[in-house]
Specification:
This protein has 269 residues and is an all-alpha fold. It has helices at 9-27, 31-42, 44-58, 64-78, 81-121, 132-139, 144-160, 169-181, 190-196, 204-216, 233-243, 254-268. α4 runs antiparallel to α10 (204-216) and α5 (81-121) runs antiparallel to α8.
Length: 269
């Protein structure tokens, strides 16, 4: 009488992680994700209940288990506390850069206006650009596509409409100043938005990024995770502890995750 060998959820999930490691090494990509996968493998005892929950909720959906574990690896690799700190620094740098552009462009617009006035009143000319088309053409000197497809039509427009129909150089630069001054920063993807919305970094950033990734990959958004897929607070806490390799005195617990989820729900109401 033959016996059927039962493969445990932990074995199935850890095989998925090993396959991710193998694929990444073979293609020489994503070493940071491999590091996360090895953390999960090294802390297998803590992950046992998580794997059982994942398998129970995802095993009937083809590829869903592999997709979810891939989300965990990428979220932990690219939205670790250090990476989120870098993202916040870059966000602040962008704000400061726009502020400087607004200031310097406004100063340049004023200087261009003054130069134009001096050309008209001083009896002198500096033989500098005065038409916006001059600037476009010089900036495109090494742009083959501009010369081949745009320049002839631009020259025709310039010949058809005299200077009064075109913005002055100072007006063009002032438009850049206004654009930078009124710029509104937005994250380019939901994970970045979720992970960096708080003013200070915390362990919650990774959890929020993972929750955003789950939502993005849900069947409701044409992803491969089932509709209404949701992990328990305890499972999310264990995932965070192992994926971020937190020390015993710094661990997340299910109460922390519950409070985080409540805050997120109240914020969106």
């Amino acid at each position: 009488m033959s016996s059927v060998k039962t493969v445990s959820p932990q074995h199935i999930c850890e095989d998925c992680l090993r396959e991710e490691i193998r694929y990444n090494r073979e293609h020489r990509i994503l070493p940071s994700e491999n590091a996360v996968a090895n953390r999960l493998l090294n802390r297998g005892a803590e992950m046992k209940e998580v794997y059982e929950e994942l398998h129970a909720k995802l095993h009937q959906h083809p590829t869903a288990l592999q997709v979810f574990l891939g989300l965990v690896l990428s979220a932990a690799a690219f939205w670790s506390p250090d990476k989120i700190k870098e993202a916040r620094t870059a966000r602040d740098d962008l704000v400061n850069t726009n502020r400087q552009i607004a200031k310097k462009a406004a100063e340049l617009a004023a200087l261009l206006g003054k130069r134009s006035e001096l050309h008209n009143t001083s009896g002198f000319s500096s033989d500098t650009h005065y038409h916006v088309c001059d600037v476009i053409e010089q900036a495109s000197l090494h742009n083959y596509l501009f010369k081949s497809y745009v320049q002839e039509q631009l020259d025709a427009l310039r010949g058809q409409f005299d200077l009064k129909y075109w913005p002055s150089l100072s007006e063009c630069v002032q438009a850049l100043a206004s654009d930078a001054e009124n710029a509104e920063l937005t994250a380019t993807d939901p994970l970045t938005a979720a992970a960096t919305e708080a003013t200070r970094s915390s362990k919650a950033d990774f959890i929020k990024a993972l929750l955003a990734a789950i939502e993005e990959n849900s069947a409701e958004n044409y992803g491969q995770l089932p509709r209404n897929f949701k992990l328990t607070d305890r499972a999310l806490a264990s995932l965070g502890n192992c994926a971020m390799d937190l020390d015993p005195d710094d661990l997340l617990d299910d109460a922390y995750i519950k409070r985080l989820r409540q805050r997120e729900r109240s914020r969106t109401l």
